[in-house]
Backbone:
């Protein structure tokens, strides 16, 4: 039972990271009906930005920066940088193909994903980069009733959940949020209602990518290491989470992410760590077969 | 289709080149796909290593073997590009796990032609095994995935590629059979990260009549070129059959095709499985050529993207384009070894640029350009259906007057484009 609870906690931490990235997939899919394969790599770039800021502030000792301020800098740079990267990707690679055949933006998205990976590999570092998280956040272990978790894990979970609640409030409570939902429902009709669809799409890309950037900061602080290939697998898993929750559904992405994290942890803990990913993707295929609209999604109508 | 009137025009020989130039990518593709272009091309391709050898024997230049190897790699990627073109260009399916089938083929061959599990099948049996194994995997993925919408197919195939990579990496010590002891180190199926070594090459004659002794590298170049020719022949034959037309119909408008009674699932699965088996056999030839089956390039998603850019640059749906794309992305990395670190950076930039500026590629028959008007459904527009004004029969004023008199409509010189 102890192991089970421990795996559950580990899974929730991992799952909150998946959920943060899954939100990005679901936001963009909801609005553009396109699968942004590059999203996982935006997360990776965010993590590298955070790692870079952390390295400058901790090692170079330009000025004695308190840890809290350094983390705040990391968050601002990573979220902002990733956000603008997302907007740039949309402008350069997706907007010219917005009314093209569905295959076209998918293929460019693959290209963008490979571009970001190779760019970081070639221009930043082909080897994993360490994040000096020990100098930034407390490295204490928290013990509660036989379960132990690092402070950063708790941080990951709390921040992720807080961001999800904030995003949910933004989308469902604000005027801009309702413009986003209108665009998601019917882009043309939204245009006729006077909504600036281009602006909605840009803001959506910014939000989605900034969330991924935040995910990158938390990943760096929690695991202490980032590499150029990490966004790939994590991105696909986050997409799996979005599909489980019902793609296009924001609350679904949160639940799907947490669920996937827990499932993966439990499989790793009780069945096989070697074949953990295999089981995760078999789960994806199973969900798509049995309930392609996911747990909370609307039944899909085939738009051919 | 609506390009029929063009055939009625008997052009002057001097006009034909100009017309060809004006016929656009689809026209160039048509011209290059003719037998009188393809046959000499393949005969020349077969002769190239002999020419290289002759030059090497009669000059101070050495490099016949090196260049034959490069060309063999070219031919291998051309096979892969043609196979991917079948699934993406003909049937419009985004198979992002494509390269996994290549890997499955090479591993399947390596298992039945090495000491890994102590099996040494004859060539015909190995071909059979490889085909059946890749077909089985294609059905395993295709049957569930092809019932889904396009984007989900992409993600399921991508996940499949990753699963296969994990499985191959981990099957050097399968957990299920951990209790068994097949050897001093237990059961080792795939060799993990090391791959499978000492795969036996095909049992082929080492010398041919008229040609004398044939070295290994030249033999495998010919095998690749031969297989490429076979694939292209099959595909060109297939294109003008009921199946080929069904693929085009599905790609152009799935809903309409379904309404016309086309069993979309069946034809998509056929395209998916055929392309997978082709890739598997290419993988098998590759394993026999290099005596090894490795996990790394065989299952890497970058390799899939590289084959994609070959198909996209050449033009979706175009067979000569796929060959051109394969040449364009195989030869430069060999010549620019010092920049090989930037290979995928360049590939990704070219991929994005082609998609944004010229989505139909060099010789594409399918236009996936954005539509200028707003529209609910987005469909593929076939570039083949556009007729240049120059292809239309010219109407003289007297003829026009006659036609006007008969039909009561105003007849104008067709200077507009359809």
Residues:
């Amino acid at each position: 039972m102890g192991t089970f609870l421990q795996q559950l906690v580990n899974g929730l931490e991992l799952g909150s990271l998946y959920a943060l990235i899954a939100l990005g997939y679901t936001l963009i899919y909801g609005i553009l009906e396109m699968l942004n394969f590059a999203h996982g790599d935006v997360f990776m770039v965010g993590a590298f930005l955070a790692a870079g800021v952390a390295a400058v502030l901790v090692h170079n000792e330009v000025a004695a920066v308190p840890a809290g301020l350094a983390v705040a800098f990391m968050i601002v740079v990573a979220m902002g940088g990733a956000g603008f990267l997302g907007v740039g990707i949309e402008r350069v690679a997706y907007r010219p193909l917005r009314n093209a055949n569905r295959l076209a933006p998918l293929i460019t998205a693959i290209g963008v994903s490979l571009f970001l990976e190779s760019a970081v590999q070639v221009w930043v570092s082909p080897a994993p980069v360490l994040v000096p998280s020990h100098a930034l956040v407390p490295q204490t272990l928290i013990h509660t009733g036989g379960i132990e978790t690092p402070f950063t894990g708790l941080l990951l979970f709390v921040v992720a959940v807080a961001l999800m609640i904030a995003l949910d409030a933004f989308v469902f409570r604000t005027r801009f949020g309702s413009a986003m939902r209108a665009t998601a429902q019917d882009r043309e009709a939204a245009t006729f209602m006077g909504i600036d669809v281009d602006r909605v799409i840009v803001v959506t890309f910014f939000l989605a990518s900034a969330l991924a950037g935040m995910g990158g900061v938390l990943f760096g602080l929690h695991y202490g290491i980032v590499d150029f290939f990490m966004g790939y697998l994590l991105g696909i898993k986050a997409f799996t989470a979005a599909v489980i929750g019902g793609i296009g559904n924001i609350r679904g992405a949160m639940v799907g992410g947490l669920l996937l994290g827990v499932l993966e942890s439990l499989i790793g803990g009780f069945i096989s760590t070697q074949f953990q990913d295999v089981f995760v993707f078999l789960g994806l295929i199973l969900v798509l077969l049995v309930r392609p609209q996911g747990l909370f999604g609307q039944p899909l109508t085939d738009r051919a | 289709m609506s390009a029929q009137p063009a055939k009625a025009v008997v052009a002057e020989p001097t006009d034909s080149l100009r017309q060809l130039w004006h016929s656009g990518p689809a026209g160039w593709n048509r011209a290059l796909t003719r037998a009188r272009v393809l046959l000499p091309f393949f005969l020349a391709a077969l002769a190239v290593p002999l020419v290289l050898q002759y030059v090497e024997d009669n000059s101070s230049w050495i490099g016949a073997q090196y260049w034959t190897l490069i060309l063999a790699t070219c031919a291998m990627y051309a096979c892969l590009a043609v196979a991917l073109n079948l699934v993406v260009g003909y049937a419009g399916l985004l198979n992002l796990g494509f390269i996994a089938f290549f890997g499955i083929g090479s591993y399947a061959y390596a298992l039945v032609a090495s000491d890994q599990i102590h099996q040494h099948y004859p060539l015909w049996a190995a071909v059979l095994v490889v085909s059946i194994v890749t077909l089985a995997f294609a059905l395993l993925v295709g049957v569930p995935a092809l019932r889904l919408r396009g984007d989900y197919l992409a993600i399921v195939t991508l996940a499949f590629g990753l699963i296969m990579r994990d499985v191959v990496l981990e099957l050097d010590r399968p957990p299920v059979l951990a209790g068994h002891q097949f050897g001093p180190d237990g059961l080792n199926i795939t060799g993990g990260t090391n791959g499978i070594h000492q795969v036996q090459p095909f049992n082929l004659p080492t010398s041919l009549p008229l040609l004398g002794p044939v070295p290994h590298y030249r033999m495998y170049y010919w095998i690749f070129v031969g297989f490429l020719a076979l694939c292209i022949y099959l595909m060109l034959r297939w294109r003008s059959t009921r199946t080929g037309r069904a693929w085009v119909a599905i790609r152009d408008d799935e809903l309409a095709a379904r309404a016309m009674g086309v069993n979309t699932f069946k034809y998509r699965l056929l395209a998916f499985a055929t392309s997978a088996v082709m890739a598997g056999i290419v993988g098998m030839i590759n394993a026999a050529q290099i005596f090894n089956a490795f996990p790394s390039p065989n299952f890497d998603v970058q390799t899939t993207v590289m084959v994609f850019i070959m198909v996209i640059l050449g033009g979706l749906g175009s067979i000569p384009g796929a060959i051109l794309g394969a040449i364009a992305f195989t030869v430069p990395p060999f010549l620019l070894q010092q920049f090989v670190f930037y290979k995928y950076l360049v590939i990704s930039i070219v991929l994005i640029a082609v998609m944004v500026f010229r989505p139909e590629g060099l010789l594409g028959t399918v236009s996936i350009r954005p539509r200028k008007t707003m529209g609910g459904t987005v469909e593929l527009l076939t570039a083949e259906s556009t007729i240049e004004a120059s292809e239309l029969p010219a109407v003289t004023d007297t003829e026009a007057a006659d036609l006007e008199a008969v039909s009561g409509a105003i007849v104008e010189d067709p200077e507009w484009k359809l």
